From TrEMBL, chains A, B, C, D:
Pfam families assigned: GFO_IDH_MocA, GFO_IDH_MocA_C3
SUPFAM superfamilies to which the protein is assigned, alphabetical: Glyceraldehyde-3-phosphate dehydrogenase-like, C-terminal domain (SSF55347), NAD(P)-binding Rossmann-fold domains (SSF51735)
InterPro entries in the cross-refs: Gfo/Idh/MocA-like_OxRdtase_N, Gfo/Idh/MocA_oxidrdct_glycsds, GFO_IDH_MocA-like_dom, NAD(P)-bd_dom_sf
Protein name: Gfo/Idh/MocA family oxidoreductase
Domain Gfo/Idh/MocA-like oxidoreductase N-terminal: 4-130
Sequence ranges assigned to domain GFO/IDH/MocA-like oxidoreductase in this UniProt record: 140-274
GO molecular function terms noted in the UniProt entry: nucleotide binding; oxidoreductase activity
Length: 376, 376, 376, 376
């Protein structure tokens, strides 16, 4: 069986999630390729070595450039802070590596576009880690829509709201600066819901957005009285039109008190509706208008082995899968796509399209008008 | 005790709700005035007489002009189709009557403005029947916000979605024509959520909206193959900014499959949040960010005698009040305001302000730009 | 139209609910008889007069015996404390009056049996105020079961839990004494869920119960340090078998922290299930096992005009009815039954059967064995 | 670091779950020992070899007796059908192995007692796979109770209901026979909720139960018309008293239409309550009666890094963990307990106590009386 040798850059919170997925994926799924946990790169060699040990990788390095150049690496997995994605991906592509990058693909759609072009020219495969569209409920929603069970989609309402920055005394960090993060909550969180919208409804054609930085400065560090300006938005929302004519609204906030994983959507069709919240990730609610008037209602489908991608994890509905299991589905798609040379999605193209929508929202806010995303 | 003699015009669905409220209000509340169910007007005298009998009114007439001119009427209660509100209200005001009108106040904000002016000049009191802000949960939400329990409001998301026109073969009716209804779902449903937004957050300063007529024609009547064009929007949404700086989004649809009473709001503050849906009208969810991190969460408050306006109906939380009970609170406010000569709210001024926001949304859609509501 | 003249005894919490129902019922429903609010009795004539005024009754008295003997009363409505029900009902029956009594019918099933016999001999009609089975959702549940939509019922789980006595310093009151209340939470609350079980599943054949007085003494009055023993149970549960072979469990508590109106049921059939909680009185959840495995789930039916008894109150699903509206349905059944001389339910016979089940549970606890309810 | 070498017997549904846990545990947690996936045993050598490959184990065998005797195995993990647990565990203990067994420990409490004694004499450590008490929400519930946040526990209501046998034409299998399964739904499902009750409330002292076989015969195999008698109960419930005086009810069913993972509990204390359902495994609802009356309500805690055992999996609340993650916590406890020679729980003693409660319930049903569990 063909080997797929992974080089992982970055071992923070999301790097760990990747590592967990790598550790279990071969037991969960019967993969078409043989995953090899080859090398870990971290900012210093000691940390890299420790993580390699913890994560079950063969080798480690304190220099990511060494990793991307290593001949025994097939795919470079980028879990570094956002502002490094572009440089690392381009370098990896230069060495002919396939690239698996965390979202957002880059700090701007222009940068993302460059990355798409580079990958295309090099003929390498790409995957962006949008996580939540790998939840079986998302594929189920897509299947329900494709079957026509809710008719034509006419409205999409989606959010990705969290409250990790709700406390005004939460110290500043790299997410708050243009140079290191680009956009604020749009880049960090809204990327997920835009990807979900495009997955479930189709391409976004035009947008009109509004952004706001509510907490204008934050302590330099925990407990400090030195205040540093926040450079990007805490909350944003936008209206949109999809290429199929459907209307949409998305919301995103990093200060939305009480929303811990507020990736939610409500999809309205001409014959029914779907409702979902990631906080109850095992459930999706389906309403069909063609049922008798006295028996209409939202039905709660609890994801189970009859639904996509679930059975390899658990024997019964209600047992439940978690965040890392989503990543495990994502990794399965990566390994199978590389081993069998078949398309992988969401790829850099999708990553760029998401980024373009986000940039269009920001531009719309600046200019106070609707923006056709193709303007960018 | 001062008498407050009611003249009710219109006895359809909403007129019945008023009648039920009139029938029970004196038993539920210790009113400051004596409510007298004086006269009913309907389109023909027989129907008027029958309704007077059913609704417990003393007299009836087939001519609403007779009612508004009657010297033994103190307040004219307008429950006729929307396009008649203005004419009837102006005529009532001309006769010096106080006016209790169903929403929307008029088919346009210009018309509503005329009505406000007329009432002001005549020195009569006015009340608009927005129903849902009389739910004890709304007053409780207002109290929670006023107490600072969720800090400063930074975001409002509100909807009034229903599905009463979701079936494309549901026949055309007066709600679908400009001449009889003005706006579509905005005028019929969004009026409620705009009123709620202004009640809970404050005045809307600017808006940017999008509207769509999804089902472009409908059968002339049940089962007919003659199709008639729909003249106003089936669905709409808008971004807004409030005068206190908060951002907002509202949505409205009359084709939102599965939403039967989708008057919902999520209010985000700097220290907490509130969530509500009228389909679970006895509940409001409160989140406070200042609780210990391992004990944070949305708490479901079940409305009860410790909350505003509930105890006169029921002895305990969870017993529950209904739609007509909201109208009963509204009628209490009417009677007490008239008997004691104190302010009543929401008055025509608020009705006009709601109408102006809705017109601004429609104008924004036409012009593809943000509109300051004061432009209208 | 035949007159039905009401004599109301008792104007506390539940008497008020009756009064509200009387005030609105003729507007809501087209009754078969003409309801007349004739006379109110209270413990002293001043209070009686004040209540008659507030409740819209013609006359009043400080002596209930005068009321039951009055020739212009057709039906005596008993809203007094439980220990007076029997005496008042028997006296009313002696005068040939129909009787509408609040639950529990009496302090023991033996007493209840006497009342049933007296009513039968006198040929008067009776009604017991079980409230919650008049919720449209209950009739809908009965219809769903009767249609076979959930197959044969095999299991019933029901509760009536509240927390009105959860605070150990809540002062003693008449509910806590054998002489004035008989049983504790069983008589006060479980009566409702037993009635619901019998309504929806059928007669209870045998029971096995367990009772407990958790808070053994309470302050004589608010803030007092004089403690008085509690004489009956704070919490209880029982297993049961129904005459159709189904198994059941009921629970009841007056100290169930957080349950404000915990009248809940889960009914399991061979082909589906129903779930309900009175705290969300407008909803019932229906599951059908014959749906495709990947589309199974509990569907939330929101009660609306397509369901029983709802349309006269409101024009649309989700508008919602409240506690007093349930009482209004109950009063409609009373007036129509008396005016048209048709059966009324739940009558004293049902009241007695409920009481017998409760006594059997208490006896089972004393004897530590299953009890056939026919033993009593 | 000390090695802990695993020998896994059985690779069906639950064996796979163990394998997944073994594959990821070292990446998720920093273990105190080095887990080695040493050997797999299956019914035939080919299957065993294939599973060893899939599950990442070093060796395999078609004979479990070879595995339990192998000197390079430290712990025998028993994932075989229930009726084999006892023989395999005793044989493993005879060879001085530690034992990790799936529930139920044995087909009867007498058998379980033998296993407890054997393990004690041999001085080996034991663990029973009860899964759900390793959900972080369970440890959180225990912490909340231990803190006194809900006062003294006075009532426990728990269920483990599923519907995997609800279809009367679902073919017979080993779960339905006394010889292979012992009890029916009690042994298969109720074991979990009894374990949870003992974990959260304390030892069960006495029980009174009722059992029923609703579907008395089933097809020999899918589609067959040959019917085979079902030998054990489809549904059961029991009342119980705990050693601390609290009352309890448990329910269990394998034909409870719509319940896919109906492991639920409601715990009532003198100062508050907790509610949980495994179908929403990331949430637990907490009510505190000492909050102001107008701000009381159930608060939904969404499990996150501030709660026990969650942070190693995910960076934020709402990301969510799944069934296999619970098993991963269980395996962590196993490895750490063996490596550090510290107590592991739930051990065989707890497995036996659960089994004794279940046997007492069945005996109570036969004899129609309360049973002290110490009678067994």
């Amino acid at each position: 069986m063909k080997e797929v040798r992974i080089g992982l850059i970055g071992t923070g919170y999301i790097g760990r999630a990747h590592a967990i997925a790598f550790s279990q994926v071969s037991t969960v799924f019967q993969l078409q390729g043989k995953l090899v946990r080859e090398m870990v790169a971290e900012i210093n060699p000691e940390l890299a070595a420790r993580r390699a040990e913890e994560f079950g990788f063969n080798r480690s390095t304190g220099d990511w450039r060494e990793l991307v150049a290593d001949p025994n690496i097939d795919v470079v997995d980028i879990c570094s802070p956002n502002f490094l994605h572009k440089e690392m991906a381009l370098e990896a592509i230069k060495h002919g590596k396939h690239v698996y990058s965390e979202k957002p693909l880059a700090l701007s759609s222009a940068d993302a576009k460059e990355m798409v072009e580079a990958a295309r020219k090099a003929g390498v495969k790409t995957l962006v880690g949008f996580n939540y569209m790998k939840n079986p409920t998302a594929k189920l929603a897509k299947e329900i829509i494709a079957n026509g069970e809710i008719g034509e989609v006419v409205h999409f309402y989606g959010t990705h709201n969290e409250d990790y920055m709700a406390d005004p005394l939460a110290p500043i960090h790299w997410h708050c600066f243009k140079e290191t993060a680009g956009l604020g909550t749009l880049g960090d969180l809204a990327a997920h819901i835009v990807n979900m919208a495009q997955y479930l409804v189709g391409d976004v054609e035009s947008v009109c957005g509004d952004l706001q930085t509510v907490i204008k400065e934050r302590p330099e560090k925990e407990g400090s009285s030195v205040m540093v300006p926040v450079e990007n938005e805490d909350q944003a929302h936008a209206m949109m039109r999809f290429s199929n004519g459907a209307m949409g609204v998305i919301e995103s906030s990093r200060i939305a008190c009480g929303r811990k994983m507020g990736l939610n959507y409500v999809i309205t069709g001409t014959k029914g509706s779907l409702m979902f919240t990631q906080e109850r990730m095992a459930e999706i609610k389906l309403y069909r208008h063609d049922e008798p008037a006295n028996r209409q209602g939202f039905k709660t489908l609890l994801v189970g082995p009859e639904h996509p991608d679930y059975a390899p994890f658990c024997g019964g509905a209600g047992h439940g899968i978690g965040f890392n299991d989503q990543k495990t589905v994502e990794v399965r798609d990566l390994i199978n796509g590389l081993a069998a040379d078949t398309p992988i999605w969401p790829d850099f193209e999708e990553g760029w399209k998401v980024s373009r929508v986000l940039d269009a929202i920001a531009l719309s806010h600046e200019q106070g008008r609707w923006i056709q995303v193709q303007e960018l």
